[in-house]
Amino acid sequence: MGMSVPQCLGQLHIRKSVVGLATGAGFIYLLYKAIKAGIKCQPPLCTTSPICIARLAIERERHGRDSGELRRLLNSLECKQDEYAKSMILHSITRCVYLLEAEASACTTDDVALVGSMLDDKDNSVKIQALNTLKAFSGIRKFRLKVQEHSINVLELIASIWDSELHIAGLRLLNNLPLPDYVHPQLRRVMPALMEILQSDYILAQVQAIRLLSYLAQKYNLLYDILNCQVHANFLNLFQSTQPGSLLFEVLVFAERLSEGRNSPHYRAVKWHYNEQSLHEALFGDESRLADRLLALVIHPEEEVQIQACKVIVSLQCSQDVGVRPSVCQPSRSYFNSGE
Question: Which pLDDT score is estimated for 55?
Fold first, then answer.
């Protein structure tokens, strides 16, 4: 049986007394031997840990052998498990899908459906791990449509559960998928929730939310729903130079796409009405202070933020000119003061 360092030292003390070694050199030598023995006595790493499983499976796949680990995990997921066990199994499945390309490609749509069924589990940690696993499967082309079938369920989870980790996992999955038109009605219903996540204080969730909104802003039939969505009075704080550069860049991309969308001939052909607390009024209304925020960002330390701020300024300038001469961008009127 293996012994710890203290146990080995105890054995050393007994042996020293029996043999009668008294010299300092002899004691130091035996101490070295004891420590060395103690290190050797440490138990081996647990081969059931996800890291060990992944290493063994990768090694087997490298030699052309199917480790069978992914199939074993999927089979165990079908059995009755407690919440913690399900979370750990899903976590291990995610690792295997990313690391074991051949075994992951050999899975079936039924396997993806099994993982998708975990979204209905009562425990949020299981839901989060299931979202991560679905994202892993979405990277395999033949499973994308099957994963896509869970889009509406994912949107409902994001809108109904206020959990930052769940928001991040769900939004990362959605941002990794092309969202079909049949999802648009559900997207309209969850738009207020997406806007609330964007205005939260959790950077990772905010970045994922703004990326999804930027993608949706390019859909003509969703543009008005986004622009008319109610926002907080301090929405423009998202454009402050004190915000993280990663978030600022995404917010500026969002603003540019909204500006381009509202300038399109199709959108301008309709006379739209917006509520007073809408995103449209915060960004493009007569009382908006967006111009001030953009001018401050032109000298931001991060170059990509500077460039993107300039793109939004140009888009807003064109927006003013389109009102005078459609499809022509001239410096006739400015969104900014002439002095600026």
Answer: 60
